[in-house]
Amino acid sequence: MSGTVGESFRVLCAGLPKAGKSTFLAALFHVAEGAELPCALTMREGTLFESDREYLQTQREQWLQQLPLERNKPGTARAIVLSLDGKYGERITLDIPDLAGEDFRQQVEERTLAVEMMGRYESCEALLLFVNPDYVREPSEIAETNGVLEAFEENPVAGSREAAGDVEQPGSAPALSADGSNGATVAAAPEPQPQPCTAVQLVELLQIVRLFARQPILRVQLVISAMDALDGGRYENNAELFVRERLSLVHQYLEANAAGFSFGVVGVSAQGGSYRSLGAQGEVPVRRTATERIRVSPAGHLGAHDITDVVCRVFAPR
Amino acid sequence: MARSGVRSRGGTAPGSGGAAESPIQLPLGESYTEAEAALRTYAETFRRVVLVGDKDAGKTTLLAELHHAFLRGPVGKFRFAGSWTLQAFESICWESRTRSGRAVADTERTRVKDGFKFFELRVGRIGADEPPLPLLLADCSGEVLRDARKHAGDASILSNIVRYSSEVVFVLNGADILDRQRRHLVGALGRTGLRALQETSGIHERSRVHLVVSKWDVLHTDAAAVSAASDATGSLTSFIEPYVDSVTISQVAARKPYGSTLEQGYGLPTLLDAICAPYPAAKVPIPDVPLQSRVFLDFGGFL
């Protein structure tokens, strides 16, 4: 790790909604503070209360109980500062706010950027870009979109909702008719609109950050979260291959812009399984420590459970 | 990365700060108008590419499939390196995916009123230690070429765009070549179109013309149609070659060809390679310089 004594780094956790940013931060805090197992970075003595810990501690408790974490509301950045000591005497301070995924989605879809966020982009030195494989929207093929269009023609209201993929969109209001009422009397259903695939959205996000970042070469770590979802398939423990094949546009973009980015890919399972499967108590495996739930791939020097190694990789020379 | 010239929806320009509560408008991601394209080229040097062809020839579909091909992976020797018009690419892709191949084919064409739409695409050559190549792709409506064949004024309008594009992609409708009744129309209309551009100085000695037969998936199994395509492109090449820098010929199957043995995006790597080919080194005449200077130049390996 290239961090020098007393150095402070501004790291941004970016990603679309439900990408796994908060879960990662809760697990990182737990591992660095709890030191249940050997880890590359540990929380420095006397810094437990260097910033407001209420949010982080609450998230950590949720994570420990394997419960879904509270989702950040748009525009509410949770300030997180972690002072960490490395095994080889490095002393680094991470300024790593927990930002709402909705803020990133707005930038890409609504094309607006809060001034405060612009300031974060300007000053950030490294980016942890989270992607949850369960929420990767693939580019649609002709046959698939024809199906959507046919559904739209048969039932314009349902068809357009299906096309927009907004069935689970948080905070989405029901469609209003011209007179402002909702319900069956929708005046004119809109045509199905194109929904950019995840790769396009992530490239847009990277372009926006690059547009404002002052750092000549921005360090990017692509974090494939919830990578247990990939177990049993060709991408099991191979986040790099997942990005190359399923998010090829992102991989190409970062490789082609070596003058503006240095990047790496890592897979992380911070929770150890989906909340749905973990909800069934009988299926929760017995482990000695909570840290053992974590899986990092490829594993760091101190084993596959050391989530702090993900932070080290951001600053590792490439 | 360029910060200027990218269209935003009014409001505060990127990087200009502004009131704390008013959000910054980001580039919209839509295609550029002529004026916006001019601003972009003022700020940065682009390799300009113009797609010319008759109505329904498949120009927009070609662009859509190029984007879609990059979503799948690198295209030939090139990888995707960025674009500020990704939303526009996604839109034409959506149109292409939803409308193409349907019972009533009605691809969302570039309409006359749209004039020209400009798309930005950066590509990086794989394995080469060089910065990405920015392409500015102009898509013009088929009606523009139709009118250019008939009126000198309309030909001049088209030539004003084509003149500043080093790469002229002339798209010939493969479906028309397959149609025995329309087959001969393709070559004749193509020739007149190229002639209109040449006589109004749209195409000149520095132009690189790329003749593209579209919809190759529907005609490549018909020997007569393949022969007709070859005749048409050969005839057009013979006609235009004396006036331009170079002519290339390629066949593309932009759509996913159902029941065809061709791979999706067939021909796109060849076409992209031709468009992005480096310009040949300029032939600089050796100046009549004093002997001492000639020795210096010779030492430096310049002579």
Shape of chain A: globular
- SSE order of chain B in H/E notation? EHEHEHEEHHEHHEHHEHH
Discrete helix count of chain A: 11
Helix content of chain B: 25-40%
Oligomer: heterodimer
Kindly state the mean pLDDT of chain B as a whole number? 83
The total strand number of chain B stands at 8
Secondary structure: helix percent of chain A: 25-40%
Estimated share of beta-strand residues of chain B: 15-25%
Distance between the first and last residues' Cα of chain A: 11 Å
Query: What can be said about the biggest beta sheet of chain A?
Result: 8 strands, mixed
Largest interface (CB within 8 Å) is between: A-B, 41 and 50 residues
Q: Based on helices, strands and strand pairing, what is the structural class of chain A?
A: alpha/beta
Major β-sheet profile of chain B: 7 strands, mixed
List keywords for this structure.
heterodimer; A: 318 residues; 11 helices; B: alpha/beta; disordered N terminus
What report would you give on this structure?
The complex is a heterodimer of chains A (318) and B (303). Chain A is of the alpha/beta class. Chain A has helices spanning 21-34, 54-64, 101-109, 115-123, 142-154, 156-164, 198-212, 239-246, 248-256, 275-279, 308-315; strands at 7-15, 41-43, 81-86, 91-95, 112-113, 126-131, 218-224, 261-269, 295-297. In chain A, helix 5 (142-154) packs antiparallel against helix 6 (156-164) and helix 7 runs parallel beside helix 9 (248-256). Chain B has helices spanning 34-43, 59-72, 86-99, 142-150, 152-162, 174-178, 183-199, 216-219, 223-240, 268-275, 291-299; strands spanning 24-25, 47-53, 78-82, 116-125, 133-140, 167-172, 208-213, 246-251. By secondary structure, chain B is of the alpha/beta class. The two termini of chain B are 37 Å apart. In chain B, a hairpin with a 7-residue loop joins strand 4 (116-125) and strand 5. Classes of the chains: A alpha/beta (318), B alpha/beta (303). Strand 5 (112-113) of chain A pairs antiparallel with strand 1 of chain B.
